[in-house]
Amino acid sequence: MEIGLIPKKPTEKPLWQIILLYFSVGFLFMVVLAMVILSYAGSKAKLEIAKLDQELNRPKTAAEIQLEREVLQAQARISNFKSLIESAKPASKVFELLERTTHPAVVFGQLSFSAVDNKISLSGQTDNFQTLGQQLLIFQSEPLIIKSNLEQIGIGKSGSVEFNISLVLNENFYEVFRPYESNQGIK
User: Fold this and answer.
1) Are residues 105 and 47 in the same domain?
2) Do 98 and 159 belong together in one domain?
3) Who contacts 48 (Cβ-Cβ below 8 Å, separation ≥6)?
4) CATH number of the domain bearing residue 140
5) What pLDDT, on the 0 to 100 scale, is given for residue 82?
6) CB atoms within 10 A of CB 144
7) DSSP string spanning 149-164?
8) For 79, left (φ over 0), alpha (ψ -120 to 50), or beta?
9) pTM of the full structure
């Protein structure tokens, strides 16, 4: 049996093992810390869920029932209004059509529009019969106007030509009308 009286130099551990040891200890510490934080957040969430369940299961008060009824009635009125707005025909398109198709020397003083039967009645005046004829030709050449009718004509006090015209618009007028594009009809 040999007894080692000669002291041996202790062997050094490689650097990668030391780094791996510290990294493993740090990672273990972070995992334990994350577990503690998640456990705390989970218990807090469970308490919040239990509180919300209690509130949902309690009977509604008369004020809450009344408020719910009012909200449902308002919602019904809003949906009715929404369908009404969606089905409405914008009358502004009529003005855009007239702006595009009116002769520069013609002035309209009255306008009556019926969206139900797509009919426009116009009262106006111009300087002479030739301009009135040109205006009628403009209306007749417009594909969105099915029919133009000169209903009344006369000479006013100032010597101008006064007239009434009725126009019947295409039934698809609201779908195909493109403002500021001349002579665009139904395709």
Assistant:
1) no
2) yes
3) none
4) 3.30.1360.100
5) 78
6) 21
7) EEEEEEE-TTS-EEEE
8) alpha
9) 0.51
Structure-block tokens of residue 50? 């239990």
Asked if residue 101 is part of any domain, the answer here is yes
d(CA 102, CA 1): 127
User: What is d(CA 150, CA 133) in angstroms, rounded to the nearest whole number?
Assistant: 10
Residue 101 makes CB contacts below 8 A (sequence gap 6+) with: 138, 139, 142, 145
Q: How confident is the model at residue 178 (pLDDT cuts 50, 70, 90)?
A: low
Range of the domain at 105: 92-176
**At a CB cut-off of 8 Å and minimum separation 6, what does 168 contact?**
117, 118, 119, 120, 145, 146, 147, 148
99 and 162 assigned to the same domain: yes
Shared domain check, 160 and 108: yes
